[in-house]
Amino acid sequence: MRQRAILHIDMNAFYASVEQHNNPAIRNKPVVVAGDPERRNGIILAKSREAKAAGVKTAQALWEAKQACPNVIVVPPDYAAYKKYSRLARLIYYEYTNQIEPFGLDEAWIDITGSLHLFGSQEAIAQEISERVKSELGLTVSIGSSWNKVFAKLGSDIDPGDGIVSITPENYKRIAWTLPAKNLIYVGAATAHKLHLSGIETIGDVAHISDTFCRNRFGGTGKVGRMLRAFARGEDPSPVKVFDPAKADVDYTIKGIGNGLTAPHDLECEEDVRALVWLLSESVAQRMRESCFRCRTVAVGARFAHDLSGYSRQLTLRTPTCITKDIANCAMELLKNAQPLNRENALRAIHVRATHLVPMTEPIQDDLFGNTQRVLEMERLEYAIDNLRRRFGNKCVYRMVELTDDTMAHLDIKESNTVHPVGFLRE
Amino acid sequence: MKGIEERVKRYVLVTTRTDEEGHVRPLEVQLRGKTYVIDEVLRVQRRNARRVGGDGICYTVRMGNTITEMYYDHPRWFVEEKVYTESC
Questions:
Q1: Number of domains in chain A
Q2: Which residues contact A103 (CB under 8 A, 6 or more apart)?
Q3: A186: domain range?
Q4: Which residues, in sequence order, are bridge partners of residue B35?
Q5: A111 & A147 share domain
Q6: What are the C-alpha distances in Å from B12 to residues A23, A286, B17, B33?
Q7: pTM score > 0.80 for this model?
Q8: Is A50 a catalytic residue?
Q9: Contact at CB, B53 and A137, closer than 8 angstroms
Q10: Per the CB < 8 Å rule, is B55 touching A23?
Q11: What local confidence, expressed as pLDDT, does residue A129 receive?
Q12: Is A207 domain-assigned?
């Protein structure tokens, strides 16, 4: 079987680079892209190379970043621009192969095995893509080149910027196996610590763990451990999925639909919480209907204002639903049962999620004591509202309960929803 | 004395013709109140406008004896206009 040729392309400091590309006045300066501190999501989303050198870190609070770099330039996020450049970059990749698997807005795997005879060697194609992204879009990329997705991503991760790292069967022990285990995809802080406790420090060490270790350390049949070992040995067989330019994303099975928000002020009473829960439930329900699903389970997550600790609860419904009222009422019930909704237990953020999705084409077993006719009427009403919103925007129709809080009344949660990278291990 | 030459991004009014295949041919451009006829399109390629920021489909065009570039960044056109600032 022919060895695969896979590239992983990572756009350097993507958000910050786009901002600097569009505004020459902030080039070669420490720039961060951050949320709005007034709405209490003033977190660093991205930093330029200059800001990184000054000690600014992603996910820091804005005040921490300013402490590290007092002259940092703060720019609000422009997701429309980031999506535009992400799409333009993928259109460049699409000229070399149709096997493109995006991993968020700024990363993508591409399989060029079938393109080598047309465009030259793996390294030549990588070089050409890098030069085209720079000349056509004004952005730089790090490219990892290997025969599997895991090592390709490792290569782009270790490149400092605007470079190409090739990990081959001849050099992977020298390059990949000497790296810390936490550099391997799917080894987060918790797994890295677990490995460290057993003296497993490098990717090379991970490549030599035994089946017994996998079972003992990772539980069950040791499947996760064996998967990591295969990753470390370059034995990842997962294919790069085919790209659909019309969808500008990959096909994947939706397992849940959720929305969350850090509230502009602490939620100190039931009315405050209800307004946000309904806003979130509205968006979740609308997205479910657009994807032609109903859900069987509603889950909520909440984060306390005083220490940012959180909790989550979920409830399985008697019959699947896509009606906003059902989801919102269920979410409120979960929150009220978890903690009193008062000043002592003020909440900072809430997340509502619908899971155990069932297609709308699937027949539903009616509830003997329920009111099927009423459910159908409610669904028809929801669809009528969806149609109005499609034509006139999401803000053309509001529920009264969502308007009880002035600071949140103007929010359009569905429009500002951004779907983040799909997990590597998806169906 | 002219001063220091800089470039600024200037959005411009462009008259175009679109053929049956969807190919766009710019015919005229207006800048600083004057209309310039585009005699020939020499090259069309996507490029970033490094000097002024942004990017688009770059048309290298000839207007008389002058060869210059104009960018189409849907839905607008822009050029890298020369301006002169006072030198110290």
A1: 3
A2: A109, A421, A422, A424
A3: 177-232
A4: B30
A5: yes
A6: 19, 41, 16, 10
A7: no
A8: no
A9: no
A10: no
A11: 97
A12: yes
